[in-house]
Design brief:
Elements: H1 2-18, E1 23-24, E2 31-33, E3 44-46, E4 57-58, H2 60-64, E5 74-77, E6 83-87, E7 92-94, E8 142-145, E9 148-153, E10 158-160
Parallel strand pairs: 2-3, 4-5
Antiparallel strand pairs: 1-2, 5-6, 6-7, 8-9, 9-10
């Protein structure tokens, strides 16, 4: 009976080895899937021209239920704000958050924002505050208050006051 069991184990082991994929663990300590020569600078080298890698997919609740997530852990969230999220050591952060950076905090000098400053529908658009002022304002034309021109500028003169610069 022992000889038959040993033979069965040996047979199953042989068939298991014959069915193996191209997974290598060379002297560089890099693992390769789809390659017999994984890049030496990688721990895992997955090579394919017909398939991609599938990151674990889960809901927001499932993601938040991960006990002690490792810093750098990556998942794909399937509900709510769908997309890739990674754990930064403190919180889950979207890899590419939707929308734009409205604070413009990612801009580097020199950067110009070329946009018209149009008033809101009720003309309450605020261009400053009592504590902060403009360094330089370049005027090409006139400034109006309540429909009346009070600062006017042309190529050689600047006027200030009611109906300034009118002849």
């Amino acid at each position: 009976m022992r000889k038959i069991s040993f033979l069965l184990v040996l047979t199953f082991a042989a068939f298991g080895l014959l069915d193996a994929q191209t997974n290598t663990f060379p002297d560089s300590d890099a693992a390769g899937i789809g390659t017999t020569t994984p890049n030496a600078s990688s721990l895992l080298d997955i090579t394919s021209t017909t398939k991609g890698i599938l990151i674990p997919r889960m809901t927001n609740a499932q993601r938040n239920a991960i006990v002690s997530p490792a810093t750098g852990l990556l998942v794909f969230q399937t509900n709510g704000a769908k997309g890739f999220f990674y754990f930064n050591g403190t919180a889950w952060v979207a890899v590419s958050p939707k929308g734009v950076n409205k604070a413009l905090s990612n801009l580097k000098a020199p950067t110009a924002i070329n946009a018209d400053l149009l008033p809101n529908t009720n003309n309450t658009f605020n261009l400053g505050s009592a504590g902060l002022g403009w360094k330089d304002i370049h005027l090409s034309g006139s400034i109006y208050s309540n429909g009346t021109r009070f600062i006017s500028n042309d190529a050689s003169n600047t006027w200030m006051g009611l109906n300034s610069g009118l002849s």
